[in-house]
Amino acid sequence: MNLTAVNQTDDCQEYSCPERSVSFSVYVILYVSAAAVALLTVCGNLLVIISVSHFKQLHTPANILILSLAASDLLVGVFVMPLHLSWVIESCWISGPVMCSALKIVNFQATSVSVHTVALIAVDRFLALRSPFFYSEEISPTVICIATLFNWLFSLLYNFTLLFINGNFTVTCPGVCIAIIDGVSSLIDLLVVFLMPCTLIIILYTHVFVIVRKHVTAIRALQVHNSKESSKNRVSDKSERKAAKLLGILVFVFLLCLLPYYICSLVIPYSNDDLFNNSTINPIIYALFYPWFQKSLKLIFTFKVFNKDSSLMNVL
To answer: Which of 193, 203, 284, 292 sits in a 20 to 30 Å window from 3, CA-based?
Structure first.
């Protein structure tokens, strides 16, 4: 949307910096809290990256996608969160137009990479259950690395085009940092970064649940006459329910964090609200539900990762 000089002047007046009205102690508490959230995000995702990168047992296609997701979340914690939270606390953008443009491109990049990575995880899980022989033969870590690299490069080109081409730009008047995007570009962004990948995620995970349920039913049919095997079956059922619960939590939290942003972008086209995704929440979910991450954390915190051949340790 091409704004006239008059409209830009009006925007600058609308978003002029208010005088700070909070006390110094409250001001300090706000900054300490913001720093704590950013630090938690950085440390949590760094631990995920170190775990997957260091231990060879974790060099699987699925974990490479988790590594990509953690890298995008780390980008949010290192760059996006400090700048945005400072803007919120100050009620004023004080970092200048260059940092404003950098904030927008990094934030949009991290968002699209995260969404498409979750979609790739859905495809990976679907193929692993639907066609296990094809998956084991054709879907190697190298293939997933190529797909991940393409995801990052595509997202970079797409977001640069979205923000800085076709008349789109960032407002640089004092006290505000807003991406001005025309209606057509907003619709395309809604389709590419929200509707299409989220629809794919929901469809594929629905198929995953159906496949898992069929596997459980088949196991019960084969083991129904053996009491010992039935006991094992109960353990298997519990494991399958736990896996299904984890998938549900991951998808629900992901959509819960993504949906409000796009609702706001439709209702308030020039909204200041940025999307942090679930960058802070993801490592917590891994710590609660992934045994390999729990074992990796124990090895990291006890400094056993510095031992010779520590990368060959069993973490599964």
So the answer is: 193
Q: Which residue from 249, 258, 292 is spatially nearest to 63, judged by alpha carbons?
A: 292
The string over 151-184, giving b where at least 16 C-beta atoms fall within 10 Å of a residue's C-beta and e elsewhere, is bbeebeebbeebbeeeebbbbbbebbbbbbbeee
Distance (Å, whole) CA 115 – CA 69 = 9
State both tokens at 63.
């974990």
Give pLDDT tens digits along the chain (316 positions): 333 333 444 445 555 566 666 677 888 888 899 899 999 999 999 999 999 999 999 999 989 999 999 999 999 999 999 998 888 888 888 888 888 889 989 999 998 998 899 899 889 888 888 888 888 888 999 999 999 999 999 999 999 988 887 666 666 566 778 777 777 888 888 889 888 988 898 888 888 878 877 776 776 677 665 554 444 444 444 554 555 556 566 667 766 766 666 665 555 544 444 556 678 888 887 777 788 888 999 999 998 888 888 888 888 7
* Other beta carbons within 10 Å of 216: 17
Give the residues across from 17 on adjacent strands. Answer: none
In a domain, 61, yes or no: yes
Q: What is the DSSP letter of 313?
A: S
Q: Specify if 146 maps to a domain.
A: yes
Say if residue 45 is exposed, middle or buried (CB neighbours under 10 Å; 0-12, 13-18, 19+).
Answer: buried
Structural domain includes residue 19: no
Q: Say which CATH number the domain at 181 has.
A: 1.20.1070.10
Task: Please name the residue that has the structure tokens 């002047």.
Answer: 9
Extract the tokens encoding 35: 């720093």
CB 289 within 8 A of CB 249: yes
- Token readout for 8 is 């830009």
Q: Is the pTM of this model over 0.90?
A: no
Q: What is the residue type of 242?
A: K
